[in-house]
Amino acid sequence: MVHPHGVRQRVHVGDLQPGDHACLLFESDEERASTLRDFVRGGLAAEDKILYLSGGRGPAGPDALLDACRLPGLPAGPAGRVEVVRLAEFVSGRGHLETLALLRRLRTAARRSREEGYRALRVAGEPCAALPDGRGPRVLGALGVARLLRYEAMLAEEFAGAGALALCQYDTRCCEPAALAAFASAHARSVEADPLVRTEDLTVVRTYRPQGLRIEGVVDAGAYRHLRDALRSVAAVRGDVCLELSRLEFLDLGGVRLLMTFARARAARHCTVELAGMPAHLRQVITLVGWDRTPGLRLGAAHA
Amino acid sequence: MPDGTGFVHHACLYGTDAEFLAMAVPFVRDGLTAGEPVLAATTPANIDLLRRALGERAHALDTAETAYFGRRPVERVSAFLRYHDRRARPGRRVRMIAEPVWNGKSARQVAEWKRMESGLNVVLSGLPVWMICPYDTRSTPDDVVRAACATHPARVDGERLIPCSAYADPGAYVAGVPLPRAPAPPGAARCGPTARVPVLRAFARDRAAAAGLAGERLALAVLAVCEAAGYLLAPGDVRVALRAWEEPGALVYELLCAGSRPVHAFAGFRPPGREAAPEDGLWLARTLTDSLDIRTQGPLTRLTLHIPDPHDAERL
User: What is the layout of strands, in order, in the sheet containing B160-163?
Assistant: First the structure.
């Protein structure tokens, strides 16, 4: 299995800056939608122009895009600020992505966004979705992968200036591991969804491989509400949930109790909650209280 | 025989093996006959005596070497409650023989255990447990034997129940048995007063690191201080001043708070239950430290935590 983020610098999608060329390797529609939502929302907040490269089943227009991002009713700004381009327009009769034509289109859009006074052109898309239904890199062959990599290299060069940024999404379910690794390495950054919680002391990020949360920083009485909300956001996840704690600096007893309550609720649905990378002293605390017997709780390996 | 609805706490002063068995055998036998869980937490020698005297019935007796059944008072209470939780049957009382170890303890530890014996009447109140605490008068210091009659409402002699006329209300008793206390030295590090836990946490961490604690032990020391501070700050609109200093063998933190809620001497002896309770954090602070002393003087509450220093070889 290819590591989803490789050795590239991982950033929250909302922290992308003009000049960035980033990738997201996703394995669920939820992850794709969540990241795209953060990407679009960030663009609207930053006064960027947004261009979405839509595949065969993707949104057909700006309203459909905002709907797909679960941002209906959000003011999209002046007409033309959110644009959807059908990737099918850039697929040759033989089913190949016409990379040069697509790049020309993006170059034109970037120039126009500058002329229109936007901070940057913000492009997102799923290059593989350009291919006809049912086809993907699994059947793309080495030549098709090479063609996409050339597109990525040219895009990186094109967008290296300050006037544009791009997020390229690849579906891990329909790409070979080697191709995924190659696609990932063609980007300087990888992204993950924006944190569910970001305060001075606490950051909680939704994770998808495995499904769960990464909890970083300090959880004390002032943060219970944030942690409770974040846990609620993964309450509907099907299957087991992993809470990654290796960057946790402090968790008090009330915070541990919230995790135990969450585990019990998951147990009622016949699912488990794994506490991964847990600081060694927290395992001791959980055992002292007797919470190591909490139904649904799995204590993963301790963080060194 | 006491009814089975609440906590019953008796002492037994025995001076011979026969006197111990005269209490223990009928107590255990009657309990087992009634289908009640029965625990004997006493010395290995007494467990041996009891097993031999019980014969076949000994198979049904739960036993624990008392020195390891809760080494400190807070752990002792947790051990009692854990036994009750794991063994209790609906409608049946639980019986316990619970003989503390008194020999070799420091003055502070003896005071803590005397206070706990009294505090059990409060902390375990309402629990359907009949507990008999044997005191071996051959080896137990005289002051401890005298204290047994002040900390237990009655004592048993064989099967005979004798009320303790010296029994004292637990609150009054502990007020008369203060823990030895060394005041903060003039050079003690200070922080606050503040209502901000992050400030107290950073100070606690710095002092623990300065005392040579690291890794897991440092994290647990910081957690203990923060839980104690969080307990004092919970009512809101109060501030905590924190002092820290080192004594041979211990890092001492002292938290001072004016105007917090009234804190009774037995607060934080019950481990956290299914539902959150205000004293949960105080229980953890007690459990993570060698000693946690609570003193109130007018509106002022003082919590003193003794945390073993890096020279505690048991934790190496």
Answer: B62-65, B38-42, B94-98, B129-136, B8-14, B154-157, B160-163
Decide if A258 touches B, using CB distance below 8 A: no
10 Å Cβ neighbour count for B298?
7
Is the domain of B171 the same as that of B297? no
CB A66 within 8 A of CB A43: no
Q: What's the pLDDT band for A2 if we cut at 50, 70, 90?
A: very low
Residue B26 binned pLDDT confidence (cut-offs 50, 70, 90)? very high
Residues on chain A touching B216 (C-beta within 8 angstroms): 279-281, 284
A197-303: CATH superfamily: STAS domain (3.30.750.24)
- Please tell me which of the candidates B219, B227, B272 has its beta carbon nearest to residue A279: B219
* DSSP class of B184: P
What is the distance between the alpha carbons of residues B76 and B100, in angstroms, rounded to a whole number? 9
Burial of A215 (0-12, 13-18, 19+ CB in 10 A): buried
Per the structure, the count of domains in chain B is: 2
Cβ pairs A/B, distance under 8 A = 55
Provide the domain limits for residue B236.
189-315
> Above pLDDT 70, what percent of chain A?
89
User: What does the pLDDT look like over A3-46, one tens digit per residue?
Assistant: 444 456 888 888 888 989 999 988 888 888 888 888 988 888 88
Inter-chain touch B227–A218, beta carbons under 8 Å: no
pLDDT digit string (tens) for A81-110? Answer: 888 988 888 888 777 778 888 889 999 998
Helix B215-233 to helix A253-267 angle (10° resolution) is 100
Q: Which residues of A touch B272 (CB under 8 A)?
A: 253, 257, 289
By CB atoms closer than 10 A (0-12, 13-18, 19+), residue B156 is: buried
